[in-house]
Amino acid sequence: MDLQSILLSGINGRRPLIIAGPCSAETEEQVIITARGLASKGIKIFRAGIWKPRTKPGGFEGVGMEGLIWLNRVKKETGMYVTTEVANHNHVVEAVEHDIDILWIGARTSANPFAVQEIANALKLVGFEGPVLIKNPVNPDLELWIGAIERIYNAGVRKIGVIHRGFSSYDKKLYRNLPQWHIPIELKRRIPNLPLIVDPSHIGGKRELIASLSQQAMDLNCDGLIIEAHCNPDEAWSDKDQQITPDVLSYILNLLVIRDTKQTTESLTELRQQIDEIDAELLSVLAKRMRISKEIGQYKKEHNMPVLQTSRYDEILIKRSIQAEEMGMELGFLKKILEAIHEESVRQQIEIVNQ
Ligand SMILES: O=C(O)C(=O)C[C@]1(C(=O)O)C=C[C@@H](O)C=C1
């Protein structure tokens, strides 16, 4: 993808790019007080939702158009850039007409190709060049996320970024939305020049998790953070548990450790060589295991045995777990590997017995 920088003029390119502001614009006063607080902490991009897709009817659905005027006041009074969420054709037209600098597409919208296409068409119609930030779809589907990016790109927008806000799940014990970091990591691998902004407020769903998730995002070399900030979080009309004051935000940002060195040293090159060699060994051992598994498949075919042998699989899991523990390996990690190997082994044997 031939993408252009999402950095607007006057914003420096040092990581992390910070976007902050309330979940929702509630009143003009709340918007202005929060914006002033953030501007005084050096924040350059102000976010506020004015059209809010709510899980259930009856929740606060945003102030609508009126909020665009408040955002304009923020621009004039503080000099910050402003961004809001758009979910349909009218939102795009209104937001662009009111000089909103950056648009974002929410997670419920990016999960719906019809809605994303409608937005893409509207962007083309009004000639908005971006930046447009595309949140991951609520469901952990990388292709759907890439599809949304492509739709916006095909509308002629070149200033595109993505926001990782985690993935919805039934289990909300620790996180509100599971980070599933492998998905944004794979996206970054496929489209390396696509800026990746992390939303620790929505991933964590709790104030206490914002600092650690932000640090994690920086350690994973993500480009920016979008964090919900409110002048009076406890009284927020939406998502109050995950909003923080501008002071707390500033405190968290000051504590972030940014690892920025890109150069590789001789000792790192040497260690990477060792990894290359070990990976080559791993591959040949894996290939050997698959050959043996195929032989067993042949045996099962000849002796009319079912492919899946749960007691043997169970024995393998238990034995390897004991070994792994002795070696100081993480058991969850080992289990994932063994499951993947077993799944592939079973798949290959099914092919053989059905030949
Ligand atoms: O032991 C077997 O029967 C195998 O085919 C090997 C294997 C494995 O790959 O570990 C594969 C399938 C069975 O469910 C159990 C184990």
TrEMBL record:
Coiled coil feature spans: 261-288
Q: Which residues form the Chorismate mutase domain?
A: 262-353
GO biological-process terms attached to the record? chorismate metabolic process
Annotated GO molecular function terms are: chorismate mutase activity; transferase activity
Q: Does the keyword Ligase apply?
A: no
EC identifiers of the protein: 5.4.99.5
Please give the Pfam families that the UniProt record associates with this protein: CM_2 (PF01817), DAHP_synth_1 (PF00793)
- Tell me the domain of life: Bacteria
Keyword Transferase included in the entry's annotation: yes
Q: What keywords were assigned to this record?
A: Coiled coil, Transferase
Report the top EC class in one word: isomerase
Recorded hits in Gene3D superfamilies, A to Z, give: Aldolase class I, Chorismate mutase
Q: Which InterPro entries match?
A: Aldolase_TIM (IPR013785), Chorismate_II_sf (IPR036263), Class-I_DAHP_synthase (IPR052899), CM_dom_sf (IPR036979), CM_II_prokaryot (IPR002701), DAHP1/KDSA (IPR006218)
Name the chain's protein: chorismate mutase
